[in-house]
Amino acid sequence: MIEIRGLNKRYGAFDALKGIDLDVKPGEFLVVLGPSGAGKSTLLRCINRLAEPTSGDIRIDGQPVRSDAASLRRLRCQVAMIFQHYNVVPRLSVQKNVLTGRLGAVPSVLSWLQIFPRKDVAIALECLRRVELEDKAELRTDTLSGGQKQRVGIARALAQQPKIILADEPVASLDPKTSRTVLNYLKQASRELGITVVCNLHQIDYAREFGERIVGVSGGRIVFEGGPDQLNGDV
Ligand code: ADP
Ligand code: ADP
User: Fold this and answer.
1) Whose CA is nearest to atom 21 of ligand 1?
2) Is ipTM beyond 0.85?
3) Each residue of 69-87: b (16+ CB within 10 Å) or e?
4) Is 220 in the pocket of ligand 1 (CB under 6 A)?
5) What is the rounded distance in angstroms from the CA atom of residue 199 to the CA atom of residue 102?
6) Which terms are listed as keywords in the entry (predicted)?
7) Looking at residue 165, what is its pLDDT?
8) For residue 115, what pLDDT is reported?
9) C-alpha of residue 83 to centroid of ligand 1, in Å
10) Counting ligands in written order, which one lies closest to the CA of residue 43?
11) CA dist 127 to 116, 132, 153, 156, 220, Å?
């Protein structure tokens, strides 16, 4: 699904990624585990071209990821993001936030007017149902708790009907109980819908609990790769 070969990313004189080779299989829930500054964010940003790799090759379904406008449009349809700080629009309703996941799919004149076809509204509500927030659809998003906002973030990603979801520290701002709830929603949705997920985490407990496979990153390199059972305390 995603093939990464010899990926390097340099910021000035600083090498944030040093020769990353990684295959992500279709439908898997891959956790990228590592401390702050390891390069996890940079890895995700290179995959969806929010950052331009310095060198190396990234392919999705065998197609090289490129940065021309047409490739980026295709990439944005295939790949959805979930962020640590949710990136929801506070003053918009929950449903409107989720509908922004449909922006790539509707004619732009409709999205400027914030008019969405009935079909897209139905998709948004179905995604809200997956994170059990359908009863909050009409509320302003800034009235929700952090965990609920991240569930909106998940629903928005699902509304995009992506092949791949890249989640960058989705629970780093949440308490342990809420974190597990949020990761459960993400994992369950991805499993039911067959979406490939790459999820950055810095807590080993969650990596062990939710990762089907775990890649440990430190100092811009992969330092561990294995199943949750192979993960011991000192990654
Ligand atoms: P992580 O997500 O694991 O915390 P990041 O990928 O955000 O790690 O960052 C890896 C390293 O690259 C850090 O040392 C960070 O300061 C540096 N870095 C990230 N983005 C930039 C940037 N735009 N310019 C310069 N340095 C950056
Ligand atoms: P994270 O939550 O992934 O650790 P950061 O707070 O490190 O994120 O980075 C937030 C933003 O700032 C990102 O866009 C990252 O690329 C950029 N950034 C991080 N470190 C640096 C740096 N040393 N110089 C410039 N930009 C940076």
Assistant:
1) 11
2) no
3) eeeeeebbebbbbbbbebe
4) no
5) 22
6) ATP-binding, Cell membrane, Membrane, Nucleotide-binding, Translocase, Transport
7) 98
8) 76
9) 15
10) 1
11) 15, 9, 10, 7, 35
Question: Which residues does a 6 A CB cutoff place in the pocket of ligand 2?
Answer: 36, 41, 84, 169
Distance from the CA of 43 to the center of ligand 2, in angstroms? 12
Supply the pLDDT for residue 235: 47
Helix (H, G, I), strand (E, B), or coil: what is residue 64?
strand
- The residue among 76, 55, 60 whose CA lies nearest residue 162 is 76
Q: What is the pTM of this model?
A: 0.90
| Ligand 2 center to 42 CA (angstroms) | 9
Q: Which residues contact 119 (CB under 8 A, 6 or more apart)?
A: none
What pLDDT is recorded for position 111? 66
H or E element in which residue 182 lies: helix 176-193
Contact residues for 103 (Cβ-Cβ < 8 A; gap 6+): 111
The packing angle between helices 146-159 and 176-193, to 10°, is 10
The amino acid sitting at 78 is Q
How far apart CA 10 and CA 17 sit, in angstroms, is 7
The set of residues, in sequence order, having a beta carbon less than 8 Å from that of 230 and lying 6+ positions away, is none
Angle at the Cα of 50 from the Cα atoms of 47 and 56, rounded to 5 degrees: 45
Those residues of the chain that have pLDDT short of 50 are: 235
Record the tokens describing residue 156, joined without a space. Answer: 């928005």
Separation of CA 191 and ligand 1 centre (Å): 30
The per-residue pLDDT for 116 is 81
Please tell me the distance from the alpha carbon of residue 149 to that of residue 145, in angstroms, as a whole number: 6
11 lines ligand 1 (CB under 6 A): yes
